Amino acid sequence: MPAYWDWSQDWKNMPLAPVWDTDGGFGGDGQRNAPITVGEGRCVSDGPFANVEAQYFGDKAIPHCLSRGFASGAHIVRIGEPISPDALEELRETSTTFAEYAPELERRAHTFMRDGIRGEFRAYTGPYDPVFFLHHVNVDRLWALWQTSATGGEIAYGGPRHDTAGASAATLDDTLNIGNLLPSVPVSAVMDTSNGFLCYQY
Question: Which keywords label this protein (predicted)?
């Protein structure tokens, strides 16, 4: 199993990406002739996650099958072009600040997933689909590449905080709190993936 899905390699024909393989991947599209379930998706019927039941869609209790609804043709090419290797390289080379790079990378990647895969990715319940995690690891990988590029910055960080009233400015001293999964640490502790706290590299 791959550690991340480099969707830039599949931007022209996403439905044929190896990540959707029935045996070695995560299963494919929703059943084409089945009823629509959520997010313009249909039940996934092949692969290791067929028949998985999700309980929510967005913030509403809507029990349903794991759902996908792949876009195709000209539409997938149109939303895929901004995350093509050439487009991502241009973004990396021309973005000199975190404020330029991070929001644009996020916009391109999330548009591709939301409008290309649909189903669970159309709401805040994307984590029901295991591919959600491969997608986000790839976003992390691309950020790490930008950080170590000539235009990036290893400690470049910013934007508004979303956990306080008034959306004050984010800083490297802000605390990352993820419940009981790991100890709380400052943002500065996770800016370098190869340091002692995270200890991984791409």
Answer: Copper, Metal-binding
Angle between helices 98-116 and 131-147 (to 10 degrees): 160
- Looking at the domain assignment, is residue 1 inside a domain? no
In the block, tokens 């791959």 appear at: 2
Q: Residue 31: give the domain boundaries.
A: 7-156
CA 186 → CA 88, 143, 170, 182, 193, distances in Å?
29, 18, 11, 12, 14
Tell me what pLDDT residue 202 has.
85
Q: If you average pLDDT over residues 44-48, what whole number do you get?
A: 96
Indicate if the pLDDT at residue 1 is higher than 60. Answer: no
Over range 33-47, report the average pLDDT.
96
Q: Are residues 112 and 13 in the same domain?
A: yes
Domain count, the chain: 2
Torsions phi, psi for 55 (to 5 deg): -100, -25
Report the 10 Å Cβ neighbour count for 198: 13
151 and 192 housed in the same domain: no
Distance CA 62, CA 84 (A): 35
Chain center to CA of 70: 16
pTM over the 0.85 mark: yes
